[in-house]
């Protein structure tokens, strides 16, 4: 399901931050409730979040929102792929970039401009 949250300006298309969603590697991962954000009483780990932390301990990037309101839940974690840094919800730390590059990630600063022929 895709949607745009006009109140917050968030686009929700699973893997929106990926340059090539078909050729990325995703693994099922158990997401901890303690790493979530509280949103109107619900606890959510947002798509594009560097997990488990935005530093040298990074394992991957969350593929789609994971609702952990009722406790730890499984979800998809991208463990290898090509990522547009400007599509991530927060600026990724240089230590996290280094850790993820060693796991097979490649980072592109921004998505290319759309050019249409006349």
Note down, in words, how this protein is organized.
This protein is mostly beta strands and 118 residues long. It is built from one helix and eleven strands; from the N terminus they run ββββββββββαβ. It has one helix spanning 94-101; strands spanning 3-5, 10-12, 25-31, 37-39, 42-45, 50-51, 60-62, 66-67, 73-80, 82-84, 106-108. The strands form four sheets. Strands 3-9-7-6 form a four-stranded antiparallel sheet, with no helix packed on it. It has a three-stranded antiparallel sheet with strand order 4-5-8, with no helix packed on it. A hairpin with a 2-residue loop joins strand 4 (37-39) and strand 5 (42-45). It is globular. The chain starts with a strand and ends in a 10-residue tail after the last strand.
What is this entry, summarized?
The protein is mainly beta.
Question: What topology, given as strand order, has the largest sheet?
Answer: 3-9-7-6
- Can you write the helix and strand succession as a string? EEEEEEEEEEHE
Overall pLDDT metric: 88
Measured as a percent range, the helix fraction is: under 10%
> What is the number of helical segments per DSSP (H or I, 4+ residues)?
1
Broad shape: globular
Structural class: mainly beta
Question: What amount of the residues lies in strands?
Answer: 25-35%
Radius of gyration: 15 Å
Largest sheet: 4 strands, antiparallel
The termini sit apart by 33 Å
* Low-confidence sequence ranges: none
What is the tally of beta strands?
A: 11
């Amino acid at each position: 399901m895709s949607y745009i949250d006009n109140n917050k300006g968030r686009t929700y298309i699973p893997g929106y931050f990926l340059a090539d969603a078909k050729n990325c590697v995703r693994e099922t991962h158990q997401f901890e409730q303690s790493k979530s954000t509280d949103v109107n009483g619900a606890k959510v780990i947002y798509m594009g979040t560097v997990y488990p932390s935005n530093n040298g301990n990074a394992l991957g990037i969350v593929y789609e929102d994971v609702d952990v309101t009722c406790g730890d839940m499984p979800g998809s974690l991208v463990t290898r792929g090509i990522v547009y840094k400007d599509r991530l919800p927060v600026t990724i730390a240089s230590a996290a970039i280094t850790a993820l590059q060693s796991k097979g990630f490649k980072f592109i600063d921004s998505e290319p401009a759309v050019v249409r022929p006349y």
